[in-house]
Amino acid sequence: MKSTTPLFHRRYKEALRSHLLAVRGKKAHRTQLPWGREARAAGLGQGDLARLHESILITELLPSCPRRRHTELLRRAGEFFALAISPAPPSPPRGSGPAPSRSALRLGLSIAALSRHAVGHALSNRELARKVEQLTLKAGQLRESKRHVSRCLRESDLLKEQLRRLSRRLLVAQEEERKKVSRELHDVVSQALVGINIRLATLKQEASLNTRGLHRNISVTQKLVQRSAQIIHQFARDLRPAVLDDLGLVPALRSYLVSFGARAGLQTRLSAYHGFQHVDPTRRTVLFRVAQEALTNIIRYARASRVDIILRKSADGGFRMSVRDDGQAFNVERVLQARGGRRLGLLGARERLEMIGGRLHIESTPGKGTILTAHLPPPPARRRRPSGATP
Ligand SMILES: Nc1ncnc2c1ncn2[C@@H]1O[C@H](COP(=O)(O)OP(=O)(O)OP(=O)(O)O)[C@@H](O)[C@H]1O
Ligand SMILES: [Mg+2]
């Protein structure tokens, strides 16, 4: 199609619009007549004019016209076009409109019919475009939620893997603990019992012969029994001190620290805020295990001369337990970041604390020693209570 100038386009549109608005008559006559000639003068054929006419209808006039009036609008637009392309009549009768030629009328009718089809197509195209737009939007949302789901899956895989690693480590640690208990029972307790048995056999023989020897042997056997009882007590205390359940955290820690100091030849001190007596069973077990691990490490690695355990209330209403030694320092970050290692003590302590909402902090300074601190948040009941309320 030859392109029309913007000016021609605008003028044709205005004429068409005013034809559609006008009642038939003089005004219509004036606006319609020049178009066929003008188009020809502008070098446009009837086909070019028809395409211009159709594009104005579809893109500019129909969208602003109510649907129920489309047929009427198309009919009148076709009429305008037929008049526009008919050759000018030699002398139109006064007061009447120009008479279009037959072929122009037929062409006008065809244009109206074609326009109706084109309008139908244009409307369904618009509908399709809207649907495509909606689908594109939905596809975008779907892609985003797919990305979100796969992110969640990746995170959950990571967590599962961490959990698996932790479970494996816990199983290994449990196995090690069982081995240790079984070895100690075999090497120490059962040896002591074998010794007692031998002594009893000797006593049986001596009972009828030598009363002085009998007395001495009974004393030795009693010592063996006492020693075995002590060892069994020690085991029981290490595994789960009854005093922890019966009397609470502070007495349990105090008694453990005293026997620890005596065994390791260390000076010990415990200073506690009295609120620690009311720490709930889960928290006191965690704190006791953390202290136990810290003390075991001190015996094994620190070469310290003194140990202090300090139990305090934190500024936020929670609790803080510090185990401080004056021994040799170590690289805390390297130990806590180590992966796949067999060292479980501090990692286990950290995990136990995190499981109840707490955290572990360790500071180790060459020349000063190590301070291991367990922080616990305030108990849930206290966190819910409004401030100022009495416990
Ligand atoms: N108080 C301490 N003084 C000096 N070094 C310490 C102290 N506590 C821990 N360490 C160092 O940190 C390392 C890690 O301790 P951790 O308790 O995690 O593992 P472990 O004692 O080696 O093994 P496990 O506790 O599993 O039997 C120790 O091997 C030790 O080198
Ligand atoms: Mg350890």
**Computed structural class:** alpha+beta
Assign the CATH superfamily of the largest domain: Histidine kinase-like ATPase, C-terminal domain
Total domains: 3
Largest sheet: spatial strand order: 1-2-3-5-4
Order of helices and strands: HHHHHHHHHEHEEHHEEH
- The number of strands is 5
CATH class of the largest domain: Alpha Beta
Helix content: 55-70%
End-to-end gap: 90 Å
CATH topology of the largest domain: Heat Shock Protein 90
CATH architecture of the largest domain: 2-Layer Sandwich
Mean pLDDT: 81
- Estimate what percentage of residues fall within beta strands: 5-15%
What is the number of helical segments per DSSP (H or I, 4+ residues)?
13
Instruction: Characterize the quaternary organization of these chains.
Output: single chain
Radius of gyration: 50 Å
Shape: rod-shaped
Largest sheet: 5 strands, mixed
Bound molecules: adenosine-5'-triphosphate, magnesium ion
Task: Catalogue the unreliable spans.
Answer: 383-391
Explain this structure to me?
- By secondary structure, the chain is of the alpha+beta class.
- It folds into 3 domains: 6-138, no CATH class; 159-234, no CATH class; 245-384, Histidine kinase-like ATPase, C-terminal domain (Heat Shock Protein 90).
- 67% of the residues lie in helices and 9% in strands.
- The protein has 13 helices and 5 strands.
- Strands 1-2-3-5-4 form a 5-stranded mixed beta sheet, with helices on one face.
- The longest helix is centred in the middle third of the chain and has 105 residues, at 102-206.
